[in-house]
Amino acid sequence: MGDSCLECVDIIHRSTLVRAPDDGIAPSFPSFIFLVAVTFGSALIALVSGLWHLLRGPKRFGALAWLIVALLPVVSWVVLAQYAYRSGQRSNVPRNLAMVLMMRTGHSLMEAQAVYLYPHRLESPRLVMFYDDQVTDPDGDLRVMDQHVADIEGLTGLPLRTKIYWARGRLLGQSNLCCFGIALGSDRSPANELDRHELAHAVLNQHHSPSTEPPTLLSEGWAESQSTDSRDLAAQALEERRLLASLVDAPESDVDSKLKRFGDREGIGRLLRRVRESEGGAICYLRELTDPFWYHHDAGPVYSMGGAFVNFLLHKYAGERFVELYYACRPGTFGEECRRVFGTELDDLEKEFWGSLEKTAEQRKQKPVPEKVTERTN
């Protein structure tokens, strides 16, 4: 039932929003916004009419009943918006009907704001960039990021279905995110790691289906692998693992002071408890970071460890097999899908992954390591 509802929302949204590749940036969002506007407009008219009949009579009870019915759609939207906001505050972004509906609505409003309110726009074969005067080298930024997206197409074997909307700054007060086909990047030149990160999300988002639900370990790990130096990712992941191991027997005063280094204290605290409960302080991080708590958790080590893990997968198994894993995963199936796609058990993959990071750390001072994979490997 849930998947059917998600598919219906997806079909409605795509039928009103998807841009044909040859249409440039012709507005295509009004239909979806119109549906939302009709809901609120009808409720407002019913509210005014209901209050009028409630005050003037007769049949005040009937007027009150219709007034309550008229407010139900508005109340539903408010509840959905509050749910989405609270989920975001907890760094928890599940792919359920309520969240997808609010994200689709936000996407429509963001597209409208980008098209009508940003003062400048520039197009390349793969991107439509919206920007203001703080972006001092729009042509150079667009050229570099268009090549970045082209590299990702070559790595994954996934061609773009339409141009990505790339906003240089905020939309709806939001920044540093990717909402379906809209990437919110840096607000000034030169384009940087943030732009690479969000555009990497946007490429894979174009190939999502209503049932696509990868863990954040893979989704954020993918974007990090395409935006952060592989040596830095390896160093960060190893440092986080080392710090957690060092806190197993540490006094609580030391634990509190060291956990302040992390923005996601709840997640790191939970991970530390699991390390303490495990035999010898050894856990399978890949299993832990894809459990029900972490599967949709959008903060903490899913970025650093996820980035290092995806980078490892891309180098060892190539982009197309990573993409297969990415789109196949559902909650509770990560280990099973790893076994199917890579032919190895999760514990063995974990050992190989950390061994690869330690090797990278050893090589860090000896020779440069590529920042990211930019072409398919065999």
Topology:
Layout: H1 2-17, H2 30-56, H3 60-89, H4 97-117, E1 120-123, E2 127-131, H5 138-156, E3 164-167, E4 177-179, E5 182-184, H6 193-205, H7 216-225, H8 230-246, H9 252-259, H10 265-277, H11 285-288, H12 301-317, H13 319-328, H14 334-342, H15 346-363
Parallel strand pairs: 2-3, 3-5
Antiparallel strand pairs: 1-2, 4-5
Helix pairs in contact: 1-4, 2-3, 2-4, 3-4, 5-6, 6-7, 7-12, 8-12, 8-15, 12-13, 13-14
Oligomerization status of the protein chains: single chain
How are the strands of the largest sheet arranged?
Answer: 1-2-3-5-4
Tell me the series of helices and strands, N- to C-terminal. HHHHEEHEEEHHHHHHHHHH
What average pLDDT do the residues reach?
85
Overall geometry comes to globular
| Structural classification | mainly alpha
* Largest sheet features: 5 strands, mixed
Say how many strands there are: 5
Distance between the termini: 41 Å
Task: Report the sheet-strand fraction.
Answer: 5-15%
Q: What would your notes on this structure say?
A:
This protein is mainly α and 378 residues long. The chain folds into 3 domains: 2-104, no CATH class; 118-205; 216-363, no CATH class. Helices cover 61% and strands 5% of the residues. The chain is built from 15 helices and 5 strands. The protein has helices at residues 2-17, 30-56, 60-89, 97-117, 138-156, 193-205, 216-225, 230-246, 252-259, 265-277, 285-288, 301-317, 319-328, 334-342, 346-363; strands at 120-123, 127-131, 164-167, 177-179, 182-184. The protein has a 5-stranded mixed sheet with strand order 1-2-3-5-4, with helices on both faces. Helix 2 (30-56) packs across helix 3 (60-89) and helix 5 crosses helix 6. The longest helix has 30 residues, at 60-89. The radius of gyration is 24 Å and the shape is globular. The model is unreliable at 11-27 and 372-378 (pLDDT under 50).
